[in-house]
Amino acid sequence: VGLASAFAAARPQPVKGLQERFPVVASEPWGRLEEVAEGIWALVSTPLQDRTTLCNGGIIAGRGGVVVIEAFNSDDGARWMAEQSVRLTGRPPSHVVLTHYHSDHTGGLRGAREVGAPEIMATPVTRDDTRKNADAPNDILNRATPLDTIRPTELDLGNRSIIIVPRRGHTDSDVTVEVTDPSVIFCGDLVWNGFFPNYRDATPSRLGQAVRLLRATDAGTYVPGHGGIVDPTDLDRYLELLDLVEDAARTALEQGLTPDEAAADFALPTELGDWYLFRPEYYERALEAWFEELSRP
């Protein structure tokens, strides 16, 4: 695994986890839309080239409505996705679902509301913690529809329904957006592919549990929060990565190492492929998260 420079200074370079998997229906410097199935499109962002969208997301269309998943990193990115909804389905989004509160998934809320004024859906924690982000649009957040944090929420789109499932791990308020036929799950940042995950607000044990529950659904297609679209084999590889981070943290604690000392010694095996680091400190951040959890009484 090659260590990367800080994300802000990153230059475009190949990331194996960004390969195309489905037909591409739109392409821009910031990402591409892949047609996963009839009426379902996944945005795979290419953030090393352009951060307009930065995170992944998608569009799910039914006869009674169109859902856009995520508000992305900027108003321009969210507006572009809404415009793609109009181009592909003939209709603006009726709903925008936020998978969690990090700014690369919520920074474009104003742009998301400019085309069709869709209903914003978020858990109360996502809504409240989004307010802490710079320039958060409180007027939009005040009108957001709260999602249940205990039970799944079903959204009827006419000829298909989506299930919004509350989960935890990457943050305290993650949701996944799931379609059963065909079996497609938009995972938010619970799942990464080709990019090493950000543990900034993670509870590592819950993260692993959440990903194992996603794997147990045996879905055909998983759309990660960052990186290319995932199949079950890719998800197994990601689970192996999470397990290696946990093993490294437990070993380092037993040896009396600090997270930065453990991070300096940490490396992923070559058989797992390349996992790009958005920032050089991501290994240390992951180990710190495990140290904090393992040190609790």
Q: Share of helix among residues?
A: 25-40%
The count of DSSP E runs of length 2 or more, i.e. the number of strands, is 13
Number of helical regions = 9
| Cα-to-Cα separation, first versus last residue | 34 Å
Keywords:
single chain, 297 residues, alpha/beta, eight-stranded mixed β-sheet, five-stranded mixed β-sheet, 13 strands, 21% strand, globular, disordered N terminus
Write the layout of secondary structure elements.
Layout: E1 24-28, E2 31-37, E3 40-45, E4 57-62, E5 65-69, H1 75-89, E6 95-97, H2 103-106, H3 109-112, E7 119-122, H4 124-130, H5 138-142, E8 145-146, E9 153-156, E10 161-167, E11 174-179, E12 184-186, H6 204-216, E13 221-223, H7 232-255, H8 259-265, H9 282-294
Parallel strand pairs: 5-6, 6-7, 7-8, 12-13
Antiparallel strand pairs: 1-2, 2-3, 3-4, 4-5, 9-10, 10-11, 11-12
Helix pairs in contact: 6-7, 7-9, 8-9
Question: What does this 3D model show about the protein?
Answer:
The chain has helices spanning 75-89, 103-106, 109-112, 124-130, 138-142, 204-216, 232-255, 259-265, 282-294; strands spanning 24-28, 31-37, 40-45, 57-62, 65-69, 95-97, 119-122, 145-146, 153-156, 161-167, 174-179, 184-186, 221-223. It starts with 23 loop residues before the first strand and ends with a helix. An eight-stranded mixed sheet has the order 1-2-3-4-5-6-7-8. It has a five-stranded mixed sheet with strand order 9-10-11-12-13, with no helix packed on it. It contains nine helices and 13 strands. The chain is an alpha/beta fold. It is globular and about 60 Å long.
